[in-house]
Amino acid sequence: MAKVFILLSHERSGSHLAGEYIGSLENFRMVDEVCNPGAVRPSKHPESYHRFRYDYIQKDASYLLDPSRQRHVDFVGGFFDHLRRLKQPHDIAIDIKYGHVQNFEWWWCPVLERPFLLALAQEIDIGVVHLYRENVVEATVSSLIADKRKVWHSWEAGADRPPQAYGLPVQNVIYRAKLLERQTALYKEWTSRNRTIAVTYEEVSSGLEDGGEVEAKLSAFLGARPRRAFHPKHRKLTPPLREVVENYAELKKACEAAGLGKFVA
Q1: Pairwise CA distance, residues 163 & 239, whole Å
Q2: Does pLDDT of 159 surpass 70?
């Protein structure tokens, strides 16, 4: 039977670059953000989680009318089986963001307890590639600037325009960076019981293309070899903080006061 993996990450963590590498491996297919209707449109793509849920309920409304934990286990497991059938005979990795994990909960979701998705992944032996960005300030700034530019990926229209410097709301950057730091710490804890590998944005952005350690680590975990030397189409969009944050001195001072100084040193 084909193997299934989850690429678990947050925004601006290098997931498309990591996904491009995974999709380049022998006998592998990378499935984009299945819970993001902007990336995988439910009306067009059977890989969409929302499309699968719609079709599932159309076929068996008792999933909603007579809910139980076992029915939910069958539903979520059925979704992964559905993706496996779509991509057979290939192994697959599925891009799921922190912010989409709640889609897999049933009717009981204590906020700080381990998500159902990870418990089920452990139960049915779905491997997890946990990708996160160590520099949470850079991740936050990158997200804010992408929103301002309306350009999120290097292949999109406008990506080749030289980025300008932006004045950013410093306290909002601090709040979001500390929130991301807390979220990442929780997911590190939650995935510790899974068959998992942790990879950072910093490793991926600097080490995918040279055939080095991070490629070997991912290939070994996924049990697949590269088909050829990897030359990614994805490129980093956001320049260093000093260049892209107009009020960098203010941001640096606020980060140091908030215990985030190591990220702007």
Answers
A1: 8
A2: no
Predicted TM-score (pTM) of this structure: 0.94
pLDDT: is 178 or 237 the higher one? Answer: 178
Residue 1's pLDDT is: 80
Containing domain of residue 137, as a range?
4-263
Report the domain count for the chain.
Answer: 1
DSSP the chain: ---EEEEEE-TTSSHHHHHHHHHTBTTEEEE--TT-TTTS-TTT-TT-HHHHHHHHHHH-THHHHS--HHHHHHHHHHHHHHHHHHHTTSEEEEEEEGGGGGGG--S---TTSPPHHHHHHHHTT-EEEEEE-S-HHHHHHHHHHHHHHT--STTSTTTTSPPPPB---HHHHHHHHHHHHHHHHHHHHHHTTSSEEEEEHHHHHHHTTTT-HHHHHHHHHHT--BSS----S----S--HHHHBTTHHHHHHHHHHTT-GGG--
pLDDT in tens, 97-138: 999 999 999 988 898 999 999 999 999 999 999 999 999 999
CATH number of the domain that residue 138 is part of: 3.40.50
